Amino acid sequence: MTYRMVDLIQKKRDGGIFDEAEINWMIENYVTGNVPDYQMAALAMAIYFKGMTTEETAALTMAMVHSGKEFDLSAIPGIKVDKHSTGGVGDKVTLILAPLVASFGVPVAKMSGRGLGHTGGTLDKLESIPGFKFEKTEAAFIEQVQKTGIAVIGQSDELVKADKLLYALRDVTATVDIIPLIASSVMSKKIAAGSDAILLDVTVGDGAFMKTVEDARLLARTMVDLGKSVGRETVAVITNMSQPLGYAVGNRNEMTEAVKTLQGQGPQAFREFIAELAQIMLELAGKTQSIPEILAHLDNGLAYEKFVAMIEAQEGDPRAYENLTAPLKTKHQVEIRATQSGFIHEEKALGIGIVAMKLGAGRATKNDQIDFEAGVTLAKKVGDAVTEGDLIATLYSNQPITAELISEFNDSLVISDEEHHPKEILEIVR
C-alpha cells in the first residue's frame, strides 16, 4: 500500500498510532530518498511530543534493522557480547571495558557511534589515533574478532541504513531525548550487529538525555524487552551522569585517561565502576569473575594488550598509543581555580559538556569538524576538598577562550561546606 508522508505526520501529530505497515513504508521510503529529511524531521518532532506505543517502538526497531544488512557472527566461537551507552559527558567506558572483557577470552564485537550534541562519541575518540579505521566489511569484522577477540567499528552504509540517517538528523533537530527514538536507534544497531548478549549503560542526570531515574528506568526496560524479544540476552545498568565520567572531557584527553586506566593508573573509583560493568558483561558470557580478579587485568597488562591488538588490527598508528599520555597541544589554555574553600558539591555534566563542545571537542551541527586536542581536563571531582586557589580544571582550545565561556564553566561548579559522594551505578534492569 502507498501512503502520503504528510498524512502520516499529521496522524502522529494528532496522537494517532501507526500500524506496522505504515512504519515499514516510512522507513523504506526514507532510506530510498522518497521521504526527504524535512518530512522525517517533522515526524521526529511529532513523535517527540506524542510518543509511541510499545508495539510502535518494536515495529520501528525491526524496520530499521531490516533497512540494511544484518551481521551473522556465528562463525565466531563463544558468546559474543556487546555494550552500548545512551550517552554522557566524558564517557570513555567502551575504550576500557571492551579490551578488559576481551582479556578474559570473551569475544567483543562492538559497534559504536559518533558524538551527539554535548555527548562524546567513541568513534571520535578513536579517530584521534592517526590512521585508525572504523569501517569494516562483515567478513573483516568477523576475522578481526576471531584473531584478536575484539573489534570496535562504526556503522557501514549497509548496516541499519535508516538509523545512520536518523542519527545525524535527530542531533540537529532537538529530537534526541525521546524514549522510542533512543530505544529503536540503540537496539536496531545492537540487533543488526549480531552479538548474542548486550549490556546497556543507561545514563541519567544532568549530562544525560534521561533526566530522571523514572525515565531512565522506562528506557532501560523498553530496550531490555526489545532485546529479549529477538533472542538477545540483555541487561541494562542505570548509571549516574550528574557529573562528567572520569576526569577528561574531549577526545584525545579521554584517550589518555583510557590508556592510563588500561595501564593500571586510573582513578580508583573509575576503575571499580568499569570493573562492575565488566563483571556483568562476563556474566552474560557465562563467566563468573570477582571484582579483584577483573581489576587485576588492568594492573597486569592483559587488558592493555587487547587494546593494542585492536588498534593495530584497525590500522592505527602503532606509535600513537605510546604517545597518548603526552600533554594536550592547543594554542590556548585556561586554568579554573577555586574561588573559595570547601568541597566540590556539583560539577554539572551538561554545562561542562557544552563548554567542551564550544572549545571544539564536539559538534553543534552534523557537519562540524572535531578538534581532537580541545576539551576540559578536571583536577577535582565531586566530593573532593578544595582550598581557595586550588586548580579545579583546565580548558584547552585552538580558538580563543572567551570570558563568557569561562563564566559558563564556572556556572557549572558548586563549592559548599557539605561533602557529597554520588553513587555511580543506581540500578540494574534485567
From TrEMBL:
This is Pyrimidine-nucleoside phosphorylase. It holds the Pfam family Glycos_transf_3. Keywords: Glycosyltransferase, Transferase. Belongs to the thymidine/pyrimidine-nucleoside phosphorylase family. Residues 343-416 form the Pyrimidine nucleoside phosphorylase C-terminal domain. Catalyzes phosphorolysis of the pyrimidine nucleosides uridine, thymidine and 2'-deoxyuridine with the formation of the corresponding pyrimidine base and ribose-1-phosphate. PANTHER family: THYMIDINE PHOSPHORYLASE. InterPro entries: Glycosyl_Trfase_fam3, Glycosyl_Trfase_fam3_N_dom, Glycosyl_Trfase_fam3_N_dom_sf, Nuc_phospho_transferase, PYNP-like_C_sf, PYNP_C, Pyrmidine_PPas_bac/euk, Pyrmidine_PPase_CS. GO terms for molecular function: 1,4-alpha-oligoglucan phosphorylase activity; thymidine phosphorylase activity. The keyword Glycoprotein does not apply. GO terms for biological process: pyrimidine nucleobase metabolic process; pyrimidine nucleoside metabolic process. GO terms for cellular component: cytosol. It catalyses: uridine + phosphate = alpha-D-ribose 1-phosphate + uracil; thymidine + phosphate = 2-deoxy-alpha-D-ribose 1-phosphate + thymine; 2'-deoxyuridine + phosphate = 2-deoxy-alpha-D-ribose 1-phosphate + uracil. Its cofactor is K(+). It comes from the Bacteria. Its EC number is 2.4.2.2. It is an enzyme of class 2 (transferase). The keyword Glycosyltransferase applies. It comes from Lactococcus taiwanensis. Homodimer. SMART domains: PYNP_C (SM00941). NCBIfam families: PRK05820.1, PRK06078.1, Y_phosphoryl. SUPFAM superfamilies: Nucleoside phosphorylase/phosphoribosyltransferase catalytic domain (SSF52418), Nucleoside phosphorylase/phosphoribosyltransferase N-terminal domain (SSF47648), Pyrimidine nucleoside phosphorylase C-terminal domain (SSF54680).
